[in-house]
Design goal:
The chain is of the alpha/beta class. Helices cover about 35% and strands about 20% of the residues. It has 11 helices and 14 strands. A 4-stranded parallel β-sheet has the order 10-2-1-14, with helices on one face. Strands 5-9-6 form a 3-stranded antiparallel β-sheet. Helix 1 (about 10-25) links the parallel strand 1 (about 5-10) and strand 2 (about 25-30). The radius of gyration is 23 Å and the shape is elongated. It starts with a strand and ends in an 8-residue tail after the last helix.
Length: about 300
């Protein structure tokens, strides 16, 4: 008999955990409170409109590029990716428009034309984007740190060596820090916001633009719900089971070991292992009654 796993939540994390459980010989079941897969990776319709606020881009959409193997294993690599030439547009109150082009050459020409007085920092930013065009972010996450051997660390170090200079130059610079180097008020405000929030490392924005330029950060056709449905289909094809409208109330614990889950309908489902892919606070303080906060 294969070992059993009870997984709480059919979001992307729960479905991925279920897929890899099935691939590795476990018998898994997912318990999901909603009647749809995806968790926050979802969309809904109201009249003639579709509301999709989750996936803006997906790293790993290009074959042969970082993260693509992961999505191939999870059954979503075949979803067509829509690649854009622009990441965003910002229109100022003075009518000027900042176009965040993915192509660093096109972006550099546009930025210098927009704010010639800030030519030096703007060219430095675009040079940073070019330096990250071949950067493999997934290499740092290929193996958990706890499982890495000394040889793994050395191999990773050699792989990261060409990027040492941009990592040192930009690693501690936030979007707000970079924006402060600009004289143009419009661009200063725009650079604080275009990558999400002012404190985000500007290097993250450079890496994202580089990934979009190499077509490795496209938008999956059909959006977030179609992406979640593809994950669901892969999990079910691997022999997994999903229980919808099955909200977990409690994680069953015996001798400080999780042994299953109890639903709000009072049914109990025993398992050799339990994986919570649900909200962390809900898991720790409600499903486990706050008994393992310090663990």
């Amino acid at each position: 008999m294969p070992k059993s796993i009870a997984i709480i939540g059919a979001g992307v994390a729960g479905l991925a955990a279920g897929c890899y459980a099935q691939m590795n010989g476990y018998a898994s079941e997912i318990f999901e409170l909603h009647d749809l897969p995806g968790g926050l990776c979802t969309a809904w319709e109201r009249r003639d409109y579709v509301f999709d606020g989750c996936i803006h881009y997906l790293l790993g959409t290009a074959p042969g590029q970082p993260y693509h193997t992961l999505w191939d294993e999870l059954g979503v690599a075949d979803i067509p990716a829509i690649n854009h030439d622009e990441m965003m547009r910002v229109v100022g109150s003075d009518g000027r428009t900042f176009v965040l082009y993915c192509d660093p050459d096109q972006l550099e020409a546009h930025l210098v034309d927009l704010a010639p007085g800030d030519e030096k920092p703007l060219r430095a930013f675009c040079r940073g984007v070019r330096q990250f065009l071949d950067f493999d972010l997934s290499a740092m996450q290929a193996k958990p740190r706890q499982l890495m051997r000394a040889t793994d660390g050395l191999a990773l170090g050699r792989q990261m060596l060409p990027y040492l200079q941009p990592l040192v130059q930009w690693g501690r610079v936030s979007a707000a820090d970079f924006a402060a180097r600009l004289q143009d008020p419009f661009l200063r405000r725009a650079f604080e916001l275009v990558f999400g929030w002012p404190e985000i490392p500007i290097m993250a924005g450079m890496s994202l633009l580089a990934a979009m330029q190499t077509q490795n950060a496209g938008f999956p056709a059909g959006g977030s719900l179609a992406f979640a449905r593809a994950l669901e289909a892969r999990y079910l094809a691997l022999g997994g089971t999903i229980h919808y409208k099955a909200q977990v109330e409690q994680i069953l614990v015996e001798n400080d070991r999780a042994v299953g889950v109890r639903l709000y309908d009072d049914s109990e489902h025993r398992a050799d292992y339990v994986i919570s892919a649900a909200d962390g606070r809900g898991t720790i303080f409600h499903m486990l009654d706050g008994k393992y906060v310090e663990r």
